[in-house]
Amino acid sequence: xxxxxxxxxxxxxxxxxxxxxxxxxxxxxxxxxxxxxxxxxxxxxxxxxxxxxxxxxxxxxxxxxxxxxxxxxxxxxxxxxxxxxxxxxxxxxxxxxxxxxxxxxxxxxxxxxxxxxxxxxxxxxxxxxxxxxxxxxxxxxxxxxxxxxxxxxxxxxxxxxxxxxxxxxxxxxxxxxxxxxxxxxxxxxxxxxxxxxxxxxxxxxxxxxxxxxxxxxxxxxxxxxxxxxxxxxxxxxxxxxxxxxxxxxxxxxxxxxxxxxxxxxxxxxxxxxxxxxxxxxxxxxxxxxxxxxxxxxxxxxxxxxxxxxxxxxxxxxxxxxxxxxxxxxxxxxxxxxxxxxxxxxxxxxxxxxxxxxxxxxxxxxxxxxxxxxxxxxxxxxxxxxxxxxxxxxxxxxxxxxxxxxxxxxxxxxxxxxxxxxxxxxxxxxxxxxxxxxxxxxxxxxxxxxxxxxxxxxxxxxxxxxxxxxxxxxxxxxxxxxxxxxxxxxxxxxxxxxxxxxxxxxxxxxxxxxxxxxxxxxxxxxxxxxxxxxxxxxxxxxxxxxxxxxxxxxxxxxxxxxxxxxxxxxxxxxxxxxxxxxxxxxxxxxxxxxxxxxxxxxxxxxxxxxxxxxxxxxxxxxxxxxxxxxxxxxxxxxxxxxxxxxxxxxxxxxxxxxxxxxxxxxxxxxxxxxxxxxxxxxxxxxxxxxxxxxxxxxxxxxxxxxxxxxxxxxxxxxxxxxxxxxxxxxxxxxxxxxxxxxxxxxxxxxxxxxxxxxxxxxxxxxxxxx
Length: 769
Hints:
By secondary structure, the protein is of the alpha+beta class. It is built from 12 helices and 41 strands. Strands 3-4-5-6-12-11-8 form a 7-stranded antiparallel sheet, covered by helices on one side. Strands 1-2-13-10-9-7 form a 6-stranded antiparallel sheet.
């Protein structure tokens, strides 16, 4: 095999050099912590090489010595890098008239994943991908170019690649030439980071050490959102919330779309202030919502249209044309106008004033829409002097960086002006590293149909592998389609095991004749669908401690919340084939029902033991078929898992959960020893981790010869603090319990047996017989 690779490498290198318009150049290298290698191909006389990306925040190593575990070998225009058992062959760099980039030799059987949001098979081999953030209204399966391009790929051969270039580009992953991967960009440097790792988990850990991890979300972000396109008046928004409350649906936020600043869809972007005709007293509305523990989120867009309140004032801050005048979009769906040049510091501060004004009225979070940007002509130019670039850059050169820059502007200003709060920013476009700016992206304007639903399994897993952990979708579907209660419930069942739970869709009433008015809020569903939706949302709230601990894992270790089946190993081909299911954390296997009128669902159960929906123990390593009803979908729990749960009679919002709230730990017995770490804090302080103002407990567990052994050890615990834990097993065989050798009573709740532990930070040993 090695001989074959060397021969193929030499032949392909010669062919490619003769076929490609290649300028003379050389490979440079830089080393980073974690055995990460940066390669830069530097062409002779190349132009437009300026770097504007800030994706990488790790500092390079000062020493020029070759770190232990890394080997470099150059041959003509090629370079080979060996890191921790992974081998990467770059055949050559190139700079043609239209693109610069690099070609890499693919290894036999190699699989590549990532590249952002694509409704395509997860393995990118055989695909050609456009790197250009792109809106796609009503999309479904097969949509190959969506809102969030991330130039990151993870290989089954033990490494990841980051192409740190935000200009318009492409990945050709063995489509044109099966043995060759090619990346090309219209402008900017050819900077490539090679990130080692034995599996996806380790690669992402190293990748996020390079580009940053997402800060903790506000705890309320893990709750239910009330949302639609869109609430057209204060009265309507208040009435919907009143009905949600009447029907006992818990909720933590309401999202208000563009009608807060105008009566119509078109011609209003840029008003950025309340339309007092329809929203006469937003201050009181927001305050009343807050009294109900409901957070208000407003949409903004970066386009300022002619005739709106702020158009004239915005002119110095808009992107320009080749003559230096503010660029006027003539064929933009929403109307004629300009785009805020968020690469200018003065434009950022001008835009931020509108956010601050509403924050001071009580707005708790933001929604950034159309941030690709949705309309971004090639002949539009941006001022990037703040990046040290002394020329204007065209739209294609900065396009994929625009949404990222918007997120950065919002995050930095929010941190400065509201230092005691965590930002919630719903957005739909960005770049590598955007995760560190507390973005909560959704997958764009998906079609309200089964194909759109199935596309979400691919989108969410791909984005999770691209380092963007809080990706989610408009649950129920956004546009088009019919009112389909079955589709709605199946989508919500899936969304309950995704980072953000937000039913959202087009419901415009009589505003646009011919457009169907389909409310997205579960309170408007007919029975039995309303009750089914309520129950699954209640289950979402019950899992709040588990979901919030997943957020801690992301912030500290770079783990995505959604994990493809092959996340820890690509050696089992069944795991690679099971792309229509995934892991929610390490405990839950989720297999959404993806077709109408389904009575069964086939899925792959990995090796080991698993607990079914009915708590039956099932042996894995096989494809199985479950019967399903509209009330459920297959959700299996890995044996040995410890699931922290918040179990109360009535859920209203996450605000009812605090440091004193009792937590039930449901242990799914296994003879194999396992461990689980639980995290909790106040749910709102940005400094809770750095200030060590949190509680963290590790549970180690095993169940041998019908005896359960559970040990609790504090990793971080406030002095003098006590918290009630209820340890529970999904079995009725337990008849006695002891804590630290002392007998304690068992509590029976339904089919569950519980033991109460008052934990004060000292080690606790629980035995259940």
